[in-house]
């Protein structure tokens, strides 16, 4: 299983994009560095609609909040 990256909105933790990590290139996917960041994880990215990034970690969200 290869590493994956998530691009997320810093203020909401909402996942904007995801894909396979290529060391050194993940940050190239960040369009607005002032409001976005990236997180690399080992394994497959879960459904981006079911997770948020909180304090640099993935967190499952309650589906009723969507």
What does this structure look like?
- Helix content is 0%, strand content 42%.
- It has 66 residues and is mostly beta strands.
- It has one domain.
- It has a three-stranded antiparallel beta sheet with strand order 2-1-3, with no helix packed on it.
- Strand 1 and strand 2 form a beta hairpin.
- The chain is globular and about 35 Å long.
Q: Cα distance, first to last residue? A: 29 Å
Spatial strand arrangement across the major sheet: 2-1-3
- What fraction, in percent, of the residue positions are helical? under 10%
Write down the overall mean pLDDT. Answer: 84
Shape: globular
Keywords: Plasmid
Summarize the structure.
With 66 residues, the protein is mainly beta.
List the helices and strands and how they pair.
Elements: E1 3-9, E2 15-20, E3 36-42, E4 51-54, E5 57-60
Antiparallel strand pairs: 1-2, 1-3, 4-5
Looking at this protein, list some descriptive labels.
globular; single chain; plasmid; 66 residues
């Amino acid at each position: 299983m290869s590493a994956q990256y998530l691009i997320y909105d810093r203020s909401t933790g909402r996942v904007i994009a995801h894909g396979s990590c290529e060391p050194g290139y993940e940050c190239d996917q960040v369009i607005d560095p002032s409001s976005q960041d990236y997180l690399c994880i080992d394994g497959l990215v879960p459904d981006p609609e079911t997770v948020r990034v909180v304090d640099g970690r993935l967190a499952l969200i309650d589906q009723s909040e969507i």
